[in-house]
Design goal:
The protein is α/β, with parallel strands linked by helices. It has two domains: 189 residues, Glycogen Phosphorylase B (Rossmann fold), CATH 3.40.50.2000; 161 residues, Glycogen Phosphorylase B (Rossmann fold), CATH 3.40.50.2000. Helix content is 44%, strand content 15%. The strands form two sheets. The chain has a seven-stranded parallel β-sheet with strand order 3-2-1-4-5-6-7, with helices on both faces. It has a six-stranded parallel β-sheet with strand order 10-9-8-11-12-13, with helices on both faces. Helix 5 crosses helix 6 and helix 6 crosses helix 7. The chain is globular. The chain starts with a strand and ends with a helix. 45% of the residues are buried. The mean pLDDT is 93.
C-alpha cells in the first residue's frame, strides 16, 4: 500500500510516530511523510520515507488563513495518490480530511488532544466544532487518545459512532525509556517538561514555585521545553528571562533526548489544562518517576492519584504547591513505589506496540473492504 503520514512538523513524526512508520516500511508499504521541513526531515528520508514539504503553522487557529492548507494538501494528495492517509494533530485532521475527501481518498485520523478551544464557549470554539463536524463525516476511522474526548465527539455528533476507537496515546517505547535504580537527589528536584504556553499550566507551576520559595521550602525547580512567544497563548521571552534571572526556575532549554533530564529529576510535573495522552507523562512513568499532574482528561489516565503520583486541581497553584510539598516529604520507599507502579502501568496499558497493532488491524480491515 502507498500510505501518507501527515503531521504539523517532521519533528513530531520522527519523535512520536517513527515506530509505526518503520513497521510500515518493514512490511513493504510505501510511506510518504507530509509535513513542514525541519532538521528531522532528512532523518525521515534516511529511514526510507518519501517526503513532501507543506506550509503549516502549528501555532494558533485562523480558519480563513488555514483554509489555504486544503488546497496545498489537495495538490500533494493528487500527485502522490496514496491508498490511505494517516492524519495526526488538529490541522491535518480537519483540512487534510477535506482535501482527501475531494479526491475520494480514505483517511484514518488521530485526535491527539482537543486543546482549550473546547473548554470555551465562543466563536472560535463554534467554528472549530463546525469544522470537525464537516470534515470527520468523511473519516473512515478516528482514533481518540482518551475516552472523554471520544464521548465528547460522539455526543456532539462530530463523528460517526461506528468510526471511533481508542488508542493509548502514541504509546511509549519501553526499551528506550528504561527505569534506573531509585536515587533521591540531595536537594529534591521538580521538572516540568513542556512547550512554554499557558495551556500547559506553566504559569500555575511558576506561582506554586513562588509560594513554596516564599515559605522557605528548599527544592530545585526546573523547566525543560521550547519558548514559543509567537503562539497565541505563548509566554513572552522577557517574562521567562525574568523567572530565570530571579532564580525562580532553572531553565534547561531544549533537548533531542529528554531521558537524562527525567532520570536526574525526583518528580515530573505537568499542570496542563487538557491533553490527549501527554507524551511527557508516559516517558516519566516508563522511567519510574513519580508524577504530579492535573485531574483532567488525558492526564488522569496516565496518573492515578496516590498510585504513581498525585493529581491536583486545574488552574489551582495553591493545590499544586501543596501536592509538590507533600510529594517531596514522602519517604524513599513511597517514591520508589510510585515509580514502580507507573512503570507497571506503562507496561500493561501504554506499550507502543498496542498502538501499532491497532493501526495495522485498521489498515488490514481497510484493505479487505476495498
Amino acid at each position: 500500500m502507498r500510505i501518507a503520514v501527515v503531521l504539523n512538523t517532521s519533528w513530531n513524526i520522527y519523535n512520536f510516530r517513527m515506530s509505526l512508520v518503520r513497521t510500515l516500511l518493514n512490511q513493504g508499504h510505501e510511506v510518504h511523510t507530509i509535513a513542514p521541513r525541519d532538521e528531522f526531515t532528512p532523518l525521515l528520508q534516511e529511514a526510507g520515507c518519501i517526503h513532501h514539504n507543506v506550509k503549516m503553522d502549528s501555532r494558533g487557529a485562523n480558519p480563513i488563513k488555514d483554509s489555504a492548507l486544503i488546497a496545498e494538501l489537495f495538490f500533494i494528495y493528487r500527485k502522490v495518490r496514496p491508498d490511505i492517509v494517516l492524519h495526526y494533530t488538529i490541522k491535518p485532521n480537519v483540512y487534510g480530511t477535506l482535501a482527501a475527501a475531494m479526491l475520494g481518498i480514505p483517511v484514518i485520523n488521530n485526535v491527539c488532544g482537543l486543546g482549550t478551544v473546547f473548554l470555551k464557549n465562543n466563536l472560535i470554539s463554534a467554528i472549530a466544532i463546525l469544522l470537525y463536524k464537516v470534515s470527520f463525516r468523511f473519516a473512515h476511522k478516528v482514533f481518540f487518545q482518551n475516552p472523554e474526548d471520544l464521548k465528547l465527539f460522539v455526543k456532539r455528533k462530530m463523528v460517526r459512532p461506528e468510526a471511533v476507537d481508542l488508542v493509548p496515546g502514541s504509546g511509549i517505547d519501553l526499551e528506550k525509556f528504561q527505569p534506573l535504580p531509585f536515587r533521591r537527589n540531595k536537594t529534591f528536584t521538580f521538572l516540568l517538561i513542556s512547550r512554554l504556553i499557558t495551556d500547559k499550566g506553566v504559569l500555575d507551576y511558576i506561582e506554586a514555585v513562588k509560594a513554596l520559595q516564599k515559605e522557605g521550602f528548599k527544592a530545585r525547580f526546573q523547566v525543560l521545553g521550547s519558548m514559543d512567544p509567537e503562539h497565541k497563548r505563548g509566554i513572552k521571552v522577557n517574562t521567562i528571562r525574568a523567572w530565570i534571572e530571579t532564580n525562580i526556575i532553572e531553565y534547561l532549554g531544549t533537548t533531542k533526548d529528554v531521558r537524562k533530564y527525567i532520570q536526574h529529576a525526583d518528580c515530573i510535573v505537568l499542570p496542563s489544562y487538557r491533553e490527549g495522552t501527554p507524551r511527557t507523562l508516559l516517558e516519566a512513568a516508563s522511567s519510574s518517576k513519580p508524577i504530579i499532574t492535573t485531574d483532567v482528561p488525558g492526564c488522569n489516565h496516565v496518573v492515578v492519584d496516590h498510585f504513581n503520583g498525585f493529581l491536583c486541581r486545574m488552574k489551582d497553584s495553591t493545590d499544586l504547591a501543596a501536592k509538590m510539598k507533600q510529594l517531596a516529604a514522602c519517604a524513599d520507599e513511597k517514591l520508589a513505589e510510585f515509580g514502580r507502579n507507573g512503570r507497571l502501568k506503562m507496561e500493561a496499558e501504554y506499550d507502543e506496540n498496542l498502538v501499532i497493532n491497532k493501526y495495522l488491524r485498521a489498515l488490514e480491515a481497510f484493505k479487505k473492504a476495498s
